[in-house]
User: What shape does this take?
Amino acid sequence: MARHTFGTDGVRGIVGERLTVDLVERLGRAFALWSGGGRTLIGRDTRGSGPELEQALARGIASGGGCAVVGGVLPTPAVALLAGPDLAAVVTASHNPPEYNGVKFFGRGGQKLVDAAEEAIEALLDAPASRGGSIEPLGDATEGYLDLVLERFGGDLSGLAIAVDCANGAYSGSAPGAFERLGARVVAVAAAPDGRNINAGCGATDLALVARTVREQGLDLGIAFDGDGDRMLAVTAAGEPIDGDQIVAILAPFLGVDQVAVTVMSNLGLHRYLAEQGIRVHSTAVGDRYVLEALRREGGILGAEQSGHMIVLDGHVTGDGLAAALLLCRALEGRTLAAAAAVMPVFPQRKLNLASGGRALSARLEDEIAALNESLGDSGRVLVRPSGTEPLIRILAEAESQEIAADLCGRVERLVRQELG
Assistant: This one.
């Protein structure tokens, strides 16, 4: 059975349109019925719609016989880590604009749900309520989370001057102080959420603010999170962006790993660099949960998406932007971020998003893309896929020069537009 409500990472949509209070309550009930009840720790990001949807989710879980433990504003990785043997859920639309919201669910031990589990939950969306559930408040859990992350991933950051862009999201009240506790000088930006400014012109989806801050204040580097804290990207002292692929290239030798898991979006340059280091690469579908599945299946600890989902499972259960940022700062070992990232050759990429109206790709178009990739060999590639979070077709073209990548992207764009009419 295909999933209709769940996307790449949970359920999300524009509030009042695709995502409603009723749907969130039904999701909560279905999740509790599917899991057999028990405790579910609930967190949320800083969107204005969050409190109402948090209460709807809690009501749903209780109506399915579960115990909803309401934690308020917490980063997604904090909820997954603090849940321990219990279940977890987060009201968030992650990196999406403020008008969106959604729900992410975790199984026991902070495990992201597999496709089959999401299909089973969808099948229970219209199930009647049961009895015996409850709703409980949770005291402030932020300090407990910070203590765990600093102990497991932190180190002496004395001498580093860092801009920290919190995306006006869930890390706004905690991440800057975490770096300061380790000795760094911190300039915090986008750390004043008002319910309407999450991810708006800031954070991991828009590095202009953190880049400008680093340049203007002469800082060593900048760190940018997304709204719920499971993504992290960086910028150099010159304000140049450092993506998830480059961060993996820095962390892999620092952590001494022999394998990593990345998605099909990862740069060919990363594959070449890791091969030179004797590090195996597992490629997965787009979505950090697929990276997590590959790591657990293969016994690895390091994985990432180019977009900034950074996963280090030695001491954690899921991707954590703060944990990854602390490790990145430690891995510099006296180098500048630019010098550390320069170990990886970067193939130019050109990306484009086209509105799809929810339509899928035809077999004919997929065959044309496959033929184009076969003709490129090892010199480049194209990737066309429907977004798992928005009604878009995403196009990626990669080649040894920017000009060739742009030409490839243009060719594929024309094919897709013909397909979409």
Remarks:
- The mean pLDDT is 94.
- The CA atoms of residues 89 and 105 lie 4 Å apart.
- The first strand starts at residue 11 and ends at 14.
